[in-house]
Amino acid sequence: MHGLINRAIQSFVCATYGQSCWLRVTEVAELGFVEFEAMLVYDDDMTVRVLDALCADLNRPRAEMLEDLGTYLVSHPKMEDLRRLLRFGGVIYVEFLHSLDDLSDRVRLAVSDLCLPALELREVSPTEYQLRCFPGLPGYSSVMVGVLRAMADDYGALAMLSHEGQEGAAEVISIVLVESAFAEGRNFDLGARKS
Amino acid sequence: MDTGDLGALLETLCPMFVLVDETGRILRVGPTLQKLRPDQQMAGKSFVDVFKLVRPRAVKSVSALMSLAGAKLHLKLHDTPSTALKGLIAPLPQGKGAVINLSFGISILDAVRDYALTSADFSGTDLAIELLYLVEAKSAAMEASRSLNLRLQGAMLAAEEQALTDMLTGLKNRRAMDVFLGHLISGSTPFALMHLDLDYFKSVNDRFGHAAGDYVLQQAAQIMIEETRSDDTVARIGGDEFVIIFRGLIDEKVLSAVAGRLIERLKKPMEFESNTCRISASIGTALSTQFVSLKAAEILHAADLALYEAKRKGRSRHALYSALAELGQEGTTTGTPSE
Fold first, then answer.
1. Which of A146, B179, B240, B292 is most open to solvent, judged by the fewest CB atoms within 10 Å of its CB?
2. What is the reported pTM?
3. pLDDT at B336 over 50
4. How big is the CA angle at B111 (ends B67 and A193), to the nearest 5 degrees?
5. B-chain residues within 8 Å CB-CB of A104?
6. Is the ipTM, as predicted for this complex, more than 0.90?
7. Does residue B89 register a pLDDT over 80?
8. Does B144 contact A38 at a Cβ distance shorter than 8 Å?
9. For residue B331, what pLDDT band results from cuts at 50, 70 and 90?
10. Please, which residues 125-184 of chain B have a Cβ atom closer than 8 Å to chain A?
11. Comparing C-alpha atoms, which of B134, B250, B294 is closest to residue A111?
């Protein structure tokens, strides 16, 4: 598993549940270290052990935990870089949804060895969409539900998201737009620079 | 199609166009281009008054500009911020003026910031947004790589520090010597400790460079290895400082003979890339048996004092700590060392 994914989990756990929780998790998962490096690649099994240990430690179901991870990736101030990259997808939420088809290609453009599963958006009606998450990364669809929910907030759109289960190999997320300009979204300045 | 229709068409396709008439007066500009000078209506002005042609430089007049159809133009705005622009000119039929399409080129990063541009300011086919995306994504990835490199470098330095070998000479390093000395002391094995300092080494380094200095250190190390037994320990503990520990050897006559041979050989000129490097050595020797309750720092300090005495006497010499002690220059042999 790519270090960026492991690092995301580490960062989520530390920011949400504290450093001590993360240290317990790394110990139970028998990693032999406490810091993932973002630019190294690790055994897939390590990630599985970390998630198992985390769910056991907090006594929470995995899908719920991964949704929170997805929300964290977009909404936490530490993750501003990632939020900005996602906002490049479109000016409004629906445009962003359509850009998800290109997400795995965009990611590979930035980090060539980070392969995310393919996503495919289908428009059921102008207010109803289905996102198909293809296999390759267990739990990806749960993370995406969290990401989509947080991005809706970011754009100021009101959307209802739910897991629709499997369809063939893909997992389906349903997105119902209640209002596309529900609230003032967060600011996105194209030319913003880090201070 | 009249220029009004043409202007409307251009507004959709290229939001940074300039439409000029045959005299070079600006008839209409795209909305994004106008955004660069919100307080200054571009339409109505002369093209060359708003834009300055950087390349090709020679072109000053409008008619000369018209002759550049199809060529790549490099322009700037006259006033600040004088954002660099790339352009292409296409003359209209029957000499009715021209369309000049502009874009930011490499100045795009500054431009989006300076003029607070948004995605809506770029045409749907423009790669500007993808470029901005890529710049940010790559910077973030680069930052992650850079921080990994820094951490790896730190780990490498720590590992080198911990290693027991001096990389340049292949001798033991300071850390290895400390460990070895500790073992000897706790095992109560009698031993002699020689502190050897190369004389004039700095001048070799200064005159012939570090490569010569490194060569001399390697040669000196080789001599020390050859002049000692295989179970003696030779360590480089500083730039031109060495410690030799003779396990089980406390005969001062033998030690003085070894020291003499070392100095004799180290004094011989060394050739490096047709330069003759001359060094020598001063040596101070102390015995473990000279201390009541021996500590590593003490015997090192004692050998150091003897070395200092050897230097004081004019270098290329060997001094025994016992001689110093007898002379009363070092009052107590069990006192706390000054270091």
1. B292
2. 0.62
3. no
4. 160
5. none
6. no
7. yes
8. yes
9. very low
10. 129, 132-134, 136-138, 140-141, 144-145, 147-148, 151
11. B134
